[in-house]
Structure formats: structure tokens, C-alpha cells
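As described in the Methods, two query proteins were run sequentially through the folding procedure within a single session, without resetting any intermediate state between them. The first query and its resulting C-alpha cells are shown here.
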Amino acid sequence: MFKEKVKKSTILGKILKKQKNKRVVFTNGCFDILHYGHVKYLEDAKSKGDILVVGINSDSSVKTLKGNLRPIVPEKERAFVIAALESVDYVVIFDELTPLELIKKLKPEVLVKGADWKKKNIIGAGFVENYGGKVARIKFLVGYSTTKIIKKISKIEL
């Protein structure tokens, strides 16, 4: 069941340590309203290793990053939807504004962000590379965003 994929960071850290000879990939985001761009991105991220861990911003961190009207979908629901995707092995919700502490705890072999991020701006990139891990940037699909979906919906008269 997909609920079993949603873990607390301390439990997930212990699980991942037992995964010998498996390449752990980590990425993160708000994933507020799931769309094609998200799904394609996560499939591409999974192709970089064996186990895909997705860090999801908590409701409080999304509010700080995106404004008081966000998130649209509560954190537990976002986590369960992401966990239901075939490409995703584990989901963890984090409260901080950045996933740096989570990255330090999980120590993935591959850190993934969209190519719209410059490598020097990817949180945790230096940390991951310092222990021999890799940073991968995945092609950004133009035209797909939660903000665009919200704007489109807000124009619809019911």
C-alpha cells in the first residue's frame, strides 16, 4: 500500500542504510497540484538510480515559500499522491525551507533537481559531491506548473 512508502526521516534513514548495493536518488519539491511535469520529472529522477526518495515540503514551509494561499492540497494528501506513483519508493515530509538537513541525514548517492536550477544553487549539491555522490539536473518541461493550473482554474466561472 502506498501509505507504507511515507516515512519519517529517522526511520527512512535506517531503512536506506540497509539497502546495500542500491543507488539512492533524492529529490524534493512542494508537489502541490500533481501534473504531467511532476510525473515526468519523477520518472526521470528514478532512472538515475534504484531507490527514489522524494522530500515534500510541509504545509508551513510551502506557505513561507509560495504565500498564504498555498498549499492547495494538504501535506499528507500530497505525500500519499506522490507515494502512489510507480516511480517513487519513499516519501518524507520536511518542515524546513530547504531539504539540506534531510539530505545530510539520508546521504543519497544522487541528488536531482530540475535543469531550471543552476548547479551552484542546488541545496545540498556540495555536501553530496563531497562524499562522492552525484548531482543530476533533469530537463525542465516548459508550460507545466501548479501556478499555471491555479491561474487557469481561477478564471473559470462556475
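Immediately afterward, the second query was submitted; its sequence and C-alpha cells are:
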Amino acid sequence: MSIKAIIFGATGMVGQAVLLECIEDGGVESVLLINRRPLENIKHPKIKEIIYADFSDFSSLLPEFSKYNACFFCLGVSAVGMREEEYYKTTFELTIRAAEAVLKANSSFTFCYVSGSGTDSSEKSKAMWARIKGKTENALMAMPFKATYMFRPGYIQPLKGIKSKVKWYMAVYFVFKPIYFLLKSFKSWITDTTSLGKAMINVVRKGCGKKILESRDINEIAVD
């Protein structure tokens, strides 16, 4: 099938990862980026970028959304230092608002949501972020998309020059980069940006029996 993908969060590490794989994949026909600010370091004929400031209302984008069949939702923030109310708005409310708009435009979408290892599907965790991520996953999986997949990577090693915007993330990556060749054998909790991007494309192309995908699943699905 020909994939026409929308990416939310292409200026972040994970969003850039799936964007680079979309560019390289011959089965991806076009990519629509919904960004608050322009993506400066990646240009390609497949890419159409819309700079959209008001993430509280996507209704004006419905005609554009209707031209696509996959959504890679990679937009997210670190919960460190955030109040629960604020994190809820930027994680649950924003994600569901975007998903509802995409679904209204075209119910044949495959929707991929990047969550994280440790997300709590019961929504009862003492960790605020785990509860809210779990609530977001549950709401997305209840929506009548063609298919929905929740990606829960653990440690993600950035490749192909990709960098995180979060400084302390980059400090961690800098420390572990020299020994990544050893760490990558722990496939149950470690993946990389290339594998994550490929896996997201592959579930759109081929489907997957699992709806919630941990690092080991991501690494397996990434192999063509």
C-alpha cells in the first residue's frame, strides 16, 4: 500500500526519526508535518509542512487531513517539573483533540502513538505521567480508527545525527553512546531512532497482532 503520513512532533527526536525513515522508504508517498515552528534541518520533495499555532482546534485542517491514511503522533513533553494539570492538558487533551480531528477527516487512518515504557494501562499508577499516558492510550484504542498502535520504547539511542531538544536527555545519550554497541543487545528495553521509525512505518504497511508495542516488539517489527 502507498502510505501518506501525517506527523505531529517532527521537530522532536522521535518525530525526526520517523520522518527520516519516511523519506528513505519508497512505499511512503508523502508526508504532512504539523508543526508550531518550521523544521529547519530536513528538506525533501515528499514533505509538506503546515505551521499551525493553535493546537486547541484542528478543524480548519480537516480537508488536508482527509488526503492521508496514517498518523504518527510523536508530540510529547517531559513530565519533569510539571504539575499534573499542565501535563494532562499537553499530553491527554492535546493528543485526543488531534486524534478526533484526524478521525473525523478519514476513519481509514492507522494511528500510531508514541507513549513510553512504564505506561500504566490501569490508570492507577502513583507516577502521574504513567497514569496520564495510560489514559491517553486507552482513549485512542477505543476510537474507531482502522488500526491503532501504542509504542512504548524504553531507552532510545539517537542515530543519523538526530538530537533531543531536552538537554539532560542529550547528556545521557552522550554518556551511553560509546557503549551502545554493548547495550543494544538488551532488546527488551533498548531500541534506536532508526528502528523506531521503521517499526512505525511497518505497522501501517503490514499490520501487527499487538496493539501495545514495547522495545522488543519495536526491534522485531523494524526488520523488513
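The mean pLDDT is 90. We note this only descriptively and draw no conclusion about the first query from it.
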